[in-house]
Structures are given as C-alpha cells and as structure tokens.
Amino acid sequence: RQVELTRVTRVESTGEEVRNGLSMTSEAYLGRAHFHGADTMRSITLLGAHSAFANGRVIVPVLRTSSMATGRRFFYNRQRIKHITLGLSSNIAQRNGVNAPALLANGSKNVSSSQAALPKHHPDGMPRWPSLTSASGILRASDWVGTVTFSVGGCILAGQVGMDVLGCTLVGTITAIGGGTFRDAILLNKQPFWTEEIEYLWICIGTAMATFALWPTVEKHKILTEDGPVMQWGDALGVGAFAIIGVQNGIRACCHPLVSLCCGVATATFGGMTRDVLCDRPARILHSYADIYASTAAGGAATYLAVRSIAPAAIGLRIGLGVGASMLMRWAAWTFDLKLPVWARHEIPSGDTDVETA
After folding, report:
1. What is the DSSP string of 78-136?
2. What number of other Cβ atoms are within 10 A of residue 188's Cβ?
3. Taking 50 as the threshold, does the pLDDT of residue 106 lie above it?
4. How far is CA 50 from CA 80, 190, 197, 260, in A?
5. 3-state class of 186 per DSSP?
6. How far is CA 156 from its chain centroid?
7. Cα dihedral 29, 30, 34, 40 in deg (nearest 10)
8. Dihedral pair phi/psi, residue 223, rounded to 5°
9. Which residues pair with residue 347 across a beta bridge?
C-alpha cells in the first residue's frame, strides 16, 4: 500500500527501520540512505550525503546535485516531491539549473528565501576547484600537485621496466588515483571520486602521456631528476594532502577515527603499492629497502584527527598541521634515511632445519 513520509530530519540509525509502513535503510548520519515506498514525499530535510530517494517502482530523475562538499545526492520521484531542504551545502550544481536549496512542486523549482545561507562545504570537505582564499581551497590545490607528482613517478617507473605508452599511462594514472579509488570502493563502499570529478582523469592521463614523451629528454639534460628536490617535495606534499583528504572522507562517512585514519593512509599509499605490484617490485610501503612512507601518511592523518578533537572550529589549523606533519616526516625520512625495524636475519642451528628465517 502507498504510504507517506512526513518528515525526516536526520539519519542516524543502522540496519532497517519502519516508519509509518515506510522501509528506511541507512548506514549512518552523513552516510548513505535509501527511502522506498512513498509516492508522496511532502517534507524531507536532508543532512546526509549520497542519498537516494525513490518510490520503489518507476524511478524518474527530478533533481540531481553533484560536486557537493557533503557528497553526492540523487533525488527521484515518480509523482511529486513537495518540499526538499538541502543541508550542509550551497554551491550546488544541479541539472535543472537551481543553484540554491530549492522547493520543488511537481517538477517546478523555486528558491526559498526563508532558508538561511548554508556553508559552502562540509567542515571536513573541500571546494571542487583549487583556490588560495581558504585552507580547504589550498588543500585542493595541494591535492592537484600531488596528483601530478604521483602520475609522473608512476609513469617513470613503468617506463623503466619496459612498458609502452599505454602501460605507462595506466600505471601513472593508477598511482595517482588508485589510493582514493580503494578508499571509496572498498573502505567506504561508494562510487570512486573520479567518476564525478572527471578532471582527475584528465590530469593523470595528460601528465602521464607528457611524462612518457618528455622525460627521457628532461632526464638527459638534468632539467629534472627522479630523486631531485622538486619531485621529493612534490611527493611529500601529495602524501600529506592525500592523507588529510582520506581522513576527511572517513569523517564525512561517520567512520570511527581509526577507520578514518586508515582511509587517510590508503589514499596516500595504496596507489603506489598497486604501481609496485604492476611493475613487479616489492611494495615500498611494506619493505625496508626505502625510507618510511606509509608511516608519514599515518602521522599526518593522526595529527589532523587530534587537532580536530581539540579545536573543532580550527579548520585551517588542522589542515595545515596535518599536511605539515606528513611533509616534515617525509623530509626527515629521506634526509636521515629513516626506516622501520625489521627482524635480524639468522640461521637456525644445523640439525633442526636448513631453512633460513627472518
């Protein structure tokens, strides 16, 4: 039978509930929610992210918002949606041209003058495009710099092991966005970020192809070296930015702080780990042949979480200290050749076995 959802102000439960005969499944507030069964949805206040609303039968897109700091939201309705209030985001790109929280009635659009101005993005989020006017905008710019640096490094390694232009482009792209893909698809169970933010694919592909074409000449004339300061500091900035962005994604999904920290480490390092596997060499973050790497991402992520718990309103401070901690640890790692401890190799006494153990 048809039922009506009169008002939902926030989604905090896990599992499944039934309200007035309406099945509601949700993972967490600011997580993913799916509402099915109602032909009429009179008033819905959305505070979460990545929400899908449908009547359970025919799904017809009415409104789609994207590039939102709180995530992706999809709104569907077979007959009518009378009142929708969008929370935690302005700066909304919508297919129907509405650029503010909107009142919808049978597909029509009107801007509600009674709604107060909303934040441009989630406190633990970023604007889509880089800017120098806010800490979050600078973080986005740092993310782009790290994406370019990671793509260059992945392409160089692929070329050194004999891959062709396609292989180098794929490895360069995977190195740059593989960590964020793992975070979204595996840890947070959502659509990978670059399917919406397509600019990341263009950055990776363009950078990798340019590196394949130009790197032999650049290296020959020593304009830029693989282990030079430009690449090292670009990589350090990328590790710090990726770690913080990974933590922010975990926070917005309402994950436990430890899980958010894992999101940060995965974002910063799993692309490189995949690169090493594809290039048939020991994964850098798991072996001691190179200086510490994943530990620096974890340090930056932990710093961000710690500052956030102490001073929740200091957004710029926690971003700066988090990225700065990772970069400082990376500098110390390559300057002092810091490595994690490993077992000392030794031989088991003869007569027991001839196998050497670590």
Report:
1. SSEE--EEE-S--S-EETT---S-EEEETTEEEE-TTSPP--SS-TT---SS--SSSHH
2. 23
3. no
4. 20, 8, 15, 18
5. helix
6. 24
7. 90
8. -70, -35
9. 356
H or E element, residue 321: helix 315-336
What does the pLDDT look like over 17-65, one tens digit per residue?
Answer: 333 333 333 322 333 333 333 333 333 434 333 333 333 322 223 333 3
Mean pLDDT, the chain, rounded, equals: 73
Burial tier of 86 (Cβ tally within 10 Å: 0-12, 13-18, 19+):
buried
The model's pTM is: 0.69
Contact 294, 176 (CB under 8 A): no
For the stretch 322-351, pLDDT in tens is 999 999 999 999 999 999 999 877 554 555
Place of tokens 């990772």: 326
Can you give the length of the chain in residues? 358
Q: Is the dihedral of CA 188, 285, 140, 170 positive or negative?
A: negative
Six-digit token string for 346: 């030794």
End-to-end CA distance of the chain: 66
What is the residue whose two structure tokens read 């710093």? 303
Contact 82, 42 (CB under 8 A): yes
Nearest by Cα to 202 from 127, 156, 151: 151
